[in-house]
Amino acid sequence: MIRYRKIFFILSVFFLLIIFLASCSSLPLIGKKDEKKTEKLPESKTVRVEGMETAKGINPPRTETPDPGKKPTPEPVPKREPETRVTSMPTRPFAAAPLPFLQMGFKKKVAILDFENKTTYQEEKIGEAVAKRLSDKLEATQRVIIMEKGVVSEMLNREGVKFESLIELPVMKQAHRSLGIQAFALGTVTDVSILSSKASETSEGEVSFATAKVEIRLVDASTGNLLKTFIGRSPIFGTKETGEYSRSKAVMKAIDFGLEDILDGFFRQLDYLDWTTTIAKIEGENLFINAGRLSGLRIGDTLEIYEPGKEIIHPATKISLGWTTGQLKGIIRISELFGVDAAIGKVAQGSGFSPNDMVKSTIR
Fold first, then answer.
1. Helix axes 126-140, 246-270, angle to 10 degrees
2. Which domain holds residue 159?
3. Residue 6 included in any domain
4. pLDDT digits over 144-170, tens only?
5. Phi and psi for 16 in degrees, rounded to 5?
6. Number of structural domains in the chain
7. Which of 130, 140, 194, 361 is the most buried (most CB within 10 A)?
8. Structure pTM?
9. Is residue 107 within 8 Å of residue 144, measured between CB atoms?
């Protein structure tokens, strides 16, 4: 009997132990963190590390390699608004090349006279060289018409003008009225220095440097007044010449430097003078003008015709103050260009024109 009780006791204890263990499985474990509710992650690789929680990671999507045989789809081109175009005004017909952009109005006529050589090199024709250099540089700008001394003298002789020098006041005024010359340019050359030495001890060649001072006087042909005196100096640097005739070449370089130093001021002063020309001949409504293609005139240009003005002389200094503007007689329109520098203008307005009248540009 006692043995049955022991067996019953052992089975009871075993049964209670099983019930206890079953109930403990539903309780949270000590030290275990409560899992937070999170959104369901997509399927991915799971990594398990001993002593740590299970971690889930998402691999980034793999970039697809484009198929070399497959052409990429072109992106749509954005729609562009239509451009607004403005039609330009029709150009006027002309028979010569257009004037340079920087040139305002028509070309003025400038007569180049002699340059006096006041250097120690009297045997050299430095004065003539300076006049030639100045003429070439002014003409290269295409802003003026150069009148050579010999050409002016010949034209005045044909008109029966007697003179000993073109710098005489009456001669300049006559050249302005009959030939349309606006200004005269003359001057002097001084302070020419030359430094020469052998190129090397073993060479017979020579290296030369030079300096020069150039003075230019610009004279208003209508009054004979001196407008301004320009002085250009050249540095010794940059005039180096070697070999045969190195001295003459260095002097010419120095003169070029001096002239380049003058040109900007020369043109600024020249711009103060009005462009004028004269009437060579009148036949009915056709006026033959002493200016044309070379002066920059083009077919369709309009010119104003004025009666001769009056020269005002200062009573004390006896210096000319300039010419007054005469009464406006009318307007002509250029219809034809002929010769080197002549044109025909047809009367657009007015009457009673004469060869003594003054022709001016309508451009102010």
1. 50
2. 108-270
3. no
4. 999 988 889 998 998 888 888 898 999
5. -65, -40
6. 2
7. 130
8. 0.67
9. yes
